[in-house]
Write a structure and sequence with these properties.
single chain; 9-stranded antiparallel sheet; globular; Pnp Oxidase, Chain A; about 170 residues
Length: about 170
Amino acid sequence: MVVRIFESKNMQLPHTQTALVMIGFLNQQQIEYLLRSEVVGHLGCSSPDQVYVVPITYVFDQNAIYAHTREGQKVDMMRENPRVCLEVSNITSLSHWQSVIIQGSFIELNGDEAEDALQKIVNRVHPLANTETMVPRHSLQRPQSTTDQHVHLVVFKIAIHETTGKFEKP
C-alpha cells in the first residue's frame, strides 16, 4: 500500500497550525469489503456523443456486480457500448472517505440467471429499504397493474475487469 502524507502550514484549523492528511490505496480485501458493505454506486456508461452517470442499487457477489433497471437511456447506451464503470464510496467527512472504481463489461441476463441475480438483489436491498410506511418495490413477482405490464425489467451483470480503490483519513 502506498501512503502519502501532506503537510500544509498555511491551512488554518482550530487549535493547530498543521494539518496531516493521509491518502492511500485500498488493497483487494479492502476493496471487496467496501463493495459488500454498500448497496448504492454510480454507474458510468457512454455512447459516441454522450457520457451518462446515474446512481444504481447493486449487489457484489462472486467477483461481479448485479443490478436491475427499466428499459431506458442507460440500457440503450450499455447495449451499444458494454464498457462501463461503477464508482462506490463511503464518505464519513470531506477528509475521511473510501472510494472504489470498477472497470467492467455490461452483460444482460435472462431466464434463470436473471431470476437468480434478481433474488440476490432482493435479499440484499430489501431489508435495508423496508419500513412500516413503505411497500417494498423489489420483488420476484411481476406487477399486477395494467400500467406496469408494459415495463420491461432489465437484469444485468457487470463482469469486473479491474478495480482500484483509494482512501483519505485525517
